[in-house]
Amino acid sequence: MPKQTRKYKTAAQLADQLDISERDNQEKLYRLLNEEGHYWDATTQAWQRLTEDADPPTELIRVRVWAESSKVGGAAYQLRVAMEDIGYQFMEQSESYPCRPPKQLESRIYLTFK
Q1: Alpha helix stretches (DSSP H) within the chain
Q2: Predicted pLDDT at 61
Q3: pTM of the predicted protein model
Q4: Nearest Cα to Cα of residue 10 among 46, 43, 41, 51
Q5: Is the pLDDT of residue 1 over 80?
Q6: What's the chain's average pLDDT?
Q7: Per-residue pLDDT, 3
Q8: Residue 89 gets which letter from DSSP?
């Protein structure tokens, strides 16, 4: 049984309106709502109907490398080399950003490829 969160409860109500019968799998229900043109707006705590056309997709590949702070730089480098080896062009690397507690011993680096 899915958690009875506000997101799920309102998703189930919207699914009734759209004649979507899926209820047992939250992620599947959310995906079906997305396919019907709805998305969850965390700010308003409500499902919204998409009213504008989507932007064209980016040609870039953006990767977040998340690891123990002492290992994140090496992991980002290894990923960069692997991506370049298969033909992607390296564009950019961010600095290492420490994560907030309770994950403060971990950090993130963002890589961009084309």
Answers
A1: 6-18, 26-35, 69-85
A2: 98
A3: 0.66
A4: 46
A5: no
A6: 94
A7: 75
A8: P
The three-class DSSP label of residue 39 is: strand
SS3 assignment, position 78? helix
C-alpha dihedral sign at 91, 95, 96, 100 = negative
**pLDDT tens per residue across span 77-97:** 999 999 999 999 999 999 999
Is the pLDDT reported for residue 102 higher than 70? yes
The DSSP 8-state label assigned to residue 35 in this structure reads H
How big is the chain, counted in residues? 114
Structure tokens at 54: 């989507």
How does strand 46-49 pair with strand 61-68?
unpaired
Residue 46 near residue 5, CB atoms below 8 Å:
no
Give 15's contacts (C-beta < 8 A, 6+ positions apart): 21, 22, 23, 29, 32, 33
Identity at 16, one-letter amino acid code: D
> Which residues 6+ apart lie within 8 Å of 78 measured at CB?
none
Give the separation between CA 34 and CA 76, rounded to whole angstroms. 32
